[in-house]
Design a protein that fits this description.
Strand order of the largest sheet: 1-2
Distance between the termini: 34 Å
Strand content: under 5%
CATH architecture: Orthogonal Bundle
Shape: globular
Number of domains: 1
CATH topology: ABC transporter involved in vitamin B12 uptake, BtuC
CATH class: Mainly Alpha
Oligomer: single chain
């Protein structure tokens, strides 16, 4: 019920922002800028879907921005070496999965805290990239932008791919056994183990999937520009986590679904253009994202305390009655 109430609240907030944009910035809804906005947000949506699965399993990955940056630069370098687009895509996904497997090894294999592991890899990948590139952009060859299609066709392709990933993962978590394994692992690791599930394998697999999705998002992000910025993905982890918790996924794991995350993502994505059109400084976006995360976690904490208190009261009442 808390999840449903939050989703209704998020829908109301999203509607208010969209209504405000319609009044104060009607140009936002013109086809060209609106399509560009959706295409720019598509890679972040893919990363957010992976972050949701990680958090449902009671883990966290704050290295996603650095993973995307590494995959973006490597994919750009392969494009300049005249690799076919299909092979560049596969290479980026494989590289992302490899980076994710490193996180998975330390978290699932050595059972280290995911927040510590991914913080370490976030800094390591980002600083290694800074040392290697020295801030230099990668200039993509002609024809690499928009996958060689027209701008409109390329934008539609990127949006469709992101929505397909969202729908596929949503169906997986809802209708397949693998999805139930994720929820079981996030709800109670020991109970999942006793039920015949291998929680460590589930956790490792999720980090690999998270890395692969980062590689896919990197390629979609590269296609929208003639250059690759080695600083790509900066702040992406905060945006993804904010969208996940706002969308109703419990930070303590085991609860939430991707369609709620999608609504939360749309809300967070609309904050930035709303600030621009309302002439509010852009740096407030991160402050707002942090405040939303804090409020969502606070709501989960208060709900858990209330549930525990209610359960304790019921148990005490049953004891008195039995006496």
């Amino acid at each position: 019920m808390r999840t449903v109430r939050r989703e209704y609240s998020v829908c109301i907030a999203l509607s208010l922002i969209l209504f405000a944009l319609a009044i104060f910035a009607p140009s936002f809804y013109q086809p060209t800028p609106f399509l560009s906005f959706l295409a720019r947000q598509a890679p972040a949506l893919i990363v957010t879907c992976g972050a949701a699965l990680i958090i449902i399993a009671r883990q966290i990955d704050i290295s996603v921005g650095s993973q995307l940056a590494v995959c973006s630069v490597c994919a750009g370098l392969l494009s300049t070496a005249n690799w076919p687009a299909g092979l560049v895509l596969l290479a980026a996904i494989a590289l992302g999965a490899t980076l994710g497997s490193i996180n998975g090894f330390f978290v699932a294999g050595l059972r280290l805290p995911s927040i510590v592991v991914t913080l370490a890899t976030m800094v390591t990948w980002r600083e290694a990239l800074r040392w290697k590139r020295q801030g230099a952009f990668v200039n993509l060859p002609q024809g690499a932008q928009w996958f060689g299609l027209s701008q409109t066709q390329g934008q539609l392709t990127i949006i469709v791919v992101a929505l397909a990933v969202l729908a596929g993962l949503a169906l997986l978590t809802r209708h397949l056994a693998a999805g139930r394994f994720i929820y079981a692992t996030g709800s109670d690791v020991e109970a999942a183990r006793l039920a015949g599930i291998r929680p460590q394998l589930v956790t490792f697999s999720l980090f690999v999937v998270m890395g692969a999705l980062s590689g896919l998002a990197a390629v979609l992000n590269n296609a929208q520009s003639p250059q690759v910025d080695p600083k790509a993905g900066t702040g992406l982890e905060l945006k993804a986590i904010a969208a996940v918790v706002v969308g109703g996924v419990a930070i303590s794991g085991g609860r939430g679904h991707l369609w709620g995350v999608f609504v939360g993502f749309l809300l967070m994505a609309c904050v930035s253009p709303a600030l621009v059109y309302l002439h509010i400084e852009a740096y407030w976006e991160r402050a707002i994202a942090g405040a939303i995360i804090l409020l969502a976690v606070l709501g989960d904490g208060l709900g858990s305390v209330q549930k525990t208190t209610t359960s304790g009261s019921l148990a005490s009442g049953e004891t008195v009655t039995s006496r």
